[in-house]
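User: Fold this, then the next.

Assistant: Folding the first:
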Amino acid sequence: MATSSLLTAAQALAVRLDRQTPDSAGVNWLSVPFARFGGYFRRQSERLVDVSLARPILFIVVGGSKQISTGATTLHHRPGDMAILPVGVPLTVLNLPADNGPYRSVMVEFTDTVRDRCRQLLADSPPVPPAASLTLPPDLAHGAALQQAMGHLLAGIGTVDPALMEHRLLEVLLILCRAGYGGHLLPAPSQSIATRLRAMVRLAPETDWTAETVARHLAVSVPTLHRRLRAEGTSLRAEVESVRLEYGHTLLVSRQVSTVAEAALRSGYGSPSRFASRFRQRFGANPSTLSA
């Protein structure tokens, strides 16, 4: 299914969802076996602060634009763009109507049952490097595999039996997880505080992650944060630095940056030389060899 066809199908679903009764957050939900689809509609600009979700959501913008901020990073989405809203990560969201119409988006919320099934299917698969952004890159979002899977999924709403709906949801989940979004879509049911910390830092590695900032986002006191991290055999500094180095490594290997200085800056290091030094200690190689 071509990109324009998927966007047209999503726009039609958004209009259909307008007929559902909105929940307390103003989302019009339609439940189907193993998932529910949400429609979001706003005629005026809207800014939501510290958005927190019970389950991860995949969304596609179908009208207007959406901005998502995590720390100092802001992601921009236009009609046809897709992204993941993860669990346990505070987000600031800005929904902006277009000049000629309202803001609209369609969301897919996968149930725990279908996500557990996806975990089982991926249990023996080799690990995949985590995606560098919540926004799906163009080659994934507009690639044939996801376009066709999403097209089949939307076409099946209210027309296929539960077994086939589960199959279509699993196809979308598997494509996304194999592209590095498993950590966002399939978080462990009960995560350690270190795991929650790493997930948060991974979304905005350049942010100044002080103990006070981290504790506030994780809803614990600073002493409790340090105590629980010590109990898990780690520390705030170690976890933040580990995530930053992993992120810098991903940027260099994937050629998303062309210089070590840029990788250092985007990874939260004010000093390229310190980044290079810590990089050598962690990976046993000079970052410049990866950017050459």
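Now the next one, as you asked:
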Amino acid sequence: GGNIIQGKSCGLSVTVIGDGNQCLGRRGAKGIQVGDAIYVSGFLGDGAAGLNYARSEPQELNKHQATLRAAYYCPAPRVLLGQQLHGIAKAVIDISDGLLSDLQHILDLNQDQPGTKTGNKTGNKTGNKTGNKTGNKTGNKTGNKIGAEISLAKLPYSQAILAETSEGERQDYALNGGDDYELLMIVAPSEQAKLEQLGCICQLTHIGTITSATSGVQVVGIGAAGEKLSLRQKGYKHFG
């Protein structure tokens, strides 16, 4: 699980293991399809921005800086929201490694489904004292290849991160920083209205769409032409 890491110092990790009647997973039981919507809860980037203040020497912080540091030290898990997502979301993951990395985890687990497999086998054997055997076996296996497209313009930011960071900094924190523990959800278009009714629990933002692209996550910029930007995925990696 996500608790498995490596480091130079000794640490203590606690893991709770149990059975759940209705578990939300990263792999969509009914299959993730092109056109499905991508949502996130809350704000993105606060945890990564707050890490800067957690690492710095003790100093007096203004209210926005204190808010960001608190977001890193004391993230609020979206338990109530998660309990309401059964039957609505196809796949869910918490954003711990970074938005791009965690969305890629979902894509990797949901490739090639559903698929079909077809095949044909024919053969002929003839001869008296000698024989000849010929045969042909062909097969084809196909599956759905999926990617994702998200919009920089739709990434949700808190007032604290808007006040304390540049545009480039907060985009990097939101896309690659991690430590937000907000929920990333994949939802069928037919379920979007139901999901958005849960906005009374916390803010929910539609940030992108599942696509037929095979190159992973594509980020669409804010330019007038809507140009696609090539952004490097730098999310946290537990080993190396």
